[in-house]
Amino acid sequence: MDGYVPKKINNSSIFSLDNLLAALGLSLDDFKVIQGLETNGRYTAIHLKKKNGDDRVVYDPHPLVRKFQRRIKNRLFSQIQYPHYLYGSISDLKHPRDYISCASRHCKAKTILKIDITSFFDYIDFDMVYKIFRELFSYSDEVSEALAYICTRDGIVPQGAPTSSFIANLCFFDVEGRIVKGLEQQKLRYTRLTDDITVSSTIQDKSLAKAKGTIVSMIETAGFVVNEEKTSIESIATMAFKVHGLRIDKETPQLPRDEIRIIRAAVHNLKSLAREPNARTSFQYRKRYESISGRVNKLARTCHPRYKKHRQELRAILPLPSRRDIKRSQVMLLTLVRDYDFFSDTPLYMKRYHRLRQRLVLIQRIYKREAKEMWKKLKALAPTKTKDEHEL
Questions:
Q1: How many other C-beta atoms can be found within 10 angstroms of the C-beta atom of residue 76?
Q2: At 186, is the secondary structure helix, strand, or coil?
Q3: 206: which of 79, 201, 299, 352 fits an S-S bond (Cβ 3.0–4.6 Å)?
Q4: Neighbour tally for 238: CB within 10 Å
Q5: d(C-alpha 283, C-alpha 288), whole Å
Q6: Where does residue 26 rank: exposed (0-12), middle (13-18), buried (19+ CB within 10 A)?
Q7: Who's near 311: CB < 8 A, 6+ residues apart?
Q8: How open is the CA angle 258-300-245, to the nearest 5 degrees?
């Protein structure tokens, strides 16, 4: 089963709360503060809209809760070697685990099974999180309970917390690998992107009913509910396949033609806007430019030939600075000078430093002399800790 089940890359364990706090580099006082917070104090609900218009609630953790969760993510979940069929929120520089690489596993499929899990995070409870830390990580009862407490809200894993997607990846750690190995022995391809499970075959009209039954049983046995409306078996003879919104009929995933047309129209409209007086110096233009630039990057990620053309078009209409940007940057520089001796090792200082760097990149497009003077002063104000050091 090697390679099919999540596995710790070392044999170390944690047996007491004191050892856990030492491993996370945090204090007992901080843990007690978290214990004393009411639910509404530990998390702030944020209401978002899904593409279909439905309401989606994510939770922003209290800064101290978030600090604990980030340490858990970076120091504990980083010890797990994740099997090849899991995608999303997994650091893998050689083989990125995003939705595009997930879809690529199913390119040229002739038959496909899609299974969606209803309200996935709402069914990941305290007991399930405790089981992950107790059985997979081999931590003590005390430590597993403490971690499950930190990673849940009212006994449920909240969407939006730094640890939640990693817990979601491990929900089936004790059964999923065996099922995937059996499917691959049948020449089937299996992936799971959080709550979206896809199984495909290169054989047209391949029967996937048995595979569906096995996976549904795994889901329901674990306490989850299958979303029947988003669960289907499809054949290439009836429709063109999409996985995670990408076409998979070619050797690599492709964006749908409608989305490519939308991106092209967005670039064209931005070019028209850029010709209006002073448009490129406005904050609204910058936000719009960043949004469209991100969408154009999706073309690069899917190796679309229009990427280079659109990127060149965007380079010709970059946002431009105004005199107000210079004044704002000078104020930002003065506050960094003021705070350097006492706060240069803090995450907030680091964010402010890099925010000023980004603004100077904008300013130097027109005001080269002013930008050069500020760059020279900024060199002596570099943060004394890197992002990686803050994350650990």
A1: 20
A2: coil
A3: 201
A4: 8
A5: 9
A6: middle
A7: 296, 300
A8: 40
Residue environment code for 121-156, b if the CB has 16+ CB neighbours within 10 A, otherwise e: bebbbbebbbbbbbebbebbeebbbbbbebbbbeeb
Q: Are 199 and 25 contacting, i.e. CB atoms less than 8 angstroms apart?
A: no
Q: pTM for the full model?
A: 0.87
**Contact predicate 300/270, CB 8 Å:** no
Q: Among 56, 87, 63, which residue's Cα sits nearest to residue 159?
A: 56
Contact in structure between 354 and 387 (CB atoms under 8 Å): no
Closest CA to 251 of 103, 360, 122: 103
What is the C-alpha separation between 144 and 366, in angstroms, rounded? Answer: 56
User: b/e map of 218-236 (b: 16 or more CB within 10 Å)?
Assistant: bbeebebebbeeebebbeb
**Widest Cα–Cα separation across the chain:** 69
Burial 349-371 (b: 16+ CB within 10 A, else e): bbebbeebeebbebbbeebeebb
Q: Mean pLDDT per segment of 10 residues, for the chain of length 392 residues?
A: 86 93 94 92 87 80 94 94 92 82 94 95 97 97 97 95 96 97 97 96 94 97 95 79 90 93 98 96 96 95 94 97 96 96 93 96 96 96 82 64
Q: How far apart are CA 234 and CA 112, in angstroms?
A: 5
Cβ contact 14:140 at 8 Å:
yes
In angstroms, the CA 271 to CA 288 distance is 11
One-letter-per-residue 3-state SS of 213-239: HHHHHHHHHCCCCEEEEEEEEEECCCC
Give residues with Cβ within 8 angstroms of 72, minimum separation 6: 24, 147, 150, 151, 162, 163
Please give the helix or strand (H or E) that residue 64 lies within, else none: helix 63-75
Of 192, 176, 183, give the one whose Cα is nearest residue 210.
183
